[in-house]
Amino acid sequence: MELFTRDDLPAGAARRGSTRTILAVDDSRTNLNVLGRRLAHLGYLVVLSDNGHEALDLIAARGFDMVLLDMVMPGMSGLHVLNEIRGNRETADLPVIMVTGRSDAGAAIEALAAGADDHVAKPFDFQVLAARIDRVIDRARRFAELKRSNATLDARIAARAMELGETRVELAETRADRLRLIASLQMLNDRFERLSGTSDAG
Predict the structure, then answer these.
(1) Which residues touch 53 (CB under 8 Å, ≥6 apart)?
(2) Buried-exposed string 130-158: b where 16+ CB fall within 10 A, e elsewhere
(3) Which residue has the higher pLDDT, 185 or 82?
(4) 132-189: per-residue pLDDT in tens?
(5) Could you tell me the end-to-end alpha-carbon distance of the chain, in angstroms, rounded to an integer?
């Protein structure tokens, strides 16, 4: 594992308001180092890994905003890593861009079918990759905000339902009390009439 941050770069490097973290996974150390430095230059905090097993350990140990994942790697392929990410409830929504040397449509279909958020074929234009990374991370951020809003709304609905349930119980109890009171008044009225009748007869 290796870490690239914007602090490794000259003072003129780009700055972002809030640092986003990217895990780059590729069996080529050369590719990783180039990616690490260029992404750090854009203001990302980049963690590098050259194998799938280590990548999964890193994902489990800390949170990332996105994973840039090589599709074909020895030992554990990128598709296997992606399946593990999507199969874990904790990481199921983690954004993943699959990178591959295959330029055929089948590679893109395979990556997207496995759950990748996007697919990039090598060699790629770095500016295009950067734009896709920005888009995927922004979309994931908006999705997370929507989930939080939905969770808050669900909690409010549940609380309101409980309040309505309690109100219904109170209303039912009030109705029962009213019926008991009416019955008691009716009994008193009947008794009064009986007593009045007895008095009139006397």
Answers:
(1) 75, 76
(2) eebbeebbeebeeeeeeeeeeeeeeeeee
(3) 82
(4) 999 999 998 887 787 777 777 777 787 787 877 888 888 888 888 888 888 888 888 8
(5) 110
